[in-house]
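Researcher: Checking consistency across runs. Here is Drug/metabolite transporter (DMT)-like permease again:
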Amino acid sequence: MTTAPTLPLLAVVLSALAYGSATVLQAVGVRALARTPRRPLGAWLTAGRWYVVGLVLDLGGFLASVVALRTLPLFVVESAVASSVAVTAVLSSLVLGQRLVACERLMLLVVLVGLVGLAVGAEPGPGLRPPAVTTLLVASVLVVAALVVVALRVPREGRVGLVVLSAAAGLGFGGVGVAARVLVWPTAEGGVAGQVAHLVTDPVLLALVAHGILATVAYALALERGSATTVAAVTFAVETVVPSAVGLVWLGDAVRPGGGWVAVVTLGFAATLGGAVGLAGRAEPADATGPAAPIAPADPAEPTEPEAPAAHRATQRAPRRH
């Protein structure tokens, strides 16, 4: 039995904290932008500084998750990243004044207990890279792209397109996690030029980038068709379950030996995912207080420009949180 190293566990916690904090900061930034005239430009940009800080935290969360995936199984990292919505819920209460109801407090406790179960029950180790995984990742890119195309042909009024786009986003974000788990980092022997050449020609890295782009587009399109709660719930479920299954079946992800640990991890996984889905309404803090006020025009004769973009995960995880 191997105890999970401290650094990967710390990295996965930092990833969840970064993503959850980024969502709130982006919401704060968007609200500030919505209240600030666009002229002078400097004042408008200054008002949105927290939005930029949120984007930086997204990048930090992604890098932290990559560090965690070098050692921890996908079912741990994916669950922890999905649990970032719990961080968003707590910070929304503290920073934005959005009250947590009793059910949401219970979900926070469920997520915390589930994460502890996953952390103690997972068997750490590097991910395997069987030849079939590259083909699987390339095929996954095509599937996600096809789902987006199909969803765009479905009438906007129904829920089918919304669910398909949300599932496509989940598959895309999950594909980023799988790719990060199996990506082989070059050694220092070939020098910087050799390392860069190795990475940019690796189909797994190309698949990682493609998954991230498609997932971001799909998530943005899904949010245009329905509520953040529905979109986040479907995305959380798909991006957690699918890559976790891939890791257990093909990539050598494992649970500590013994039937007891299997039960602990199974319950921990179910609790974390269930809690995250239960808190999905907190994935978009701006929703809780209604739309932001229109931007005041700088000049009465100047038409009001479109409202600043909503702070949602479509602008987060670039290319994603893994």
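Researcher: Does this match what you'd expect to see?
Model: One thing to look at in this run: Residues 6-315 form one domain.
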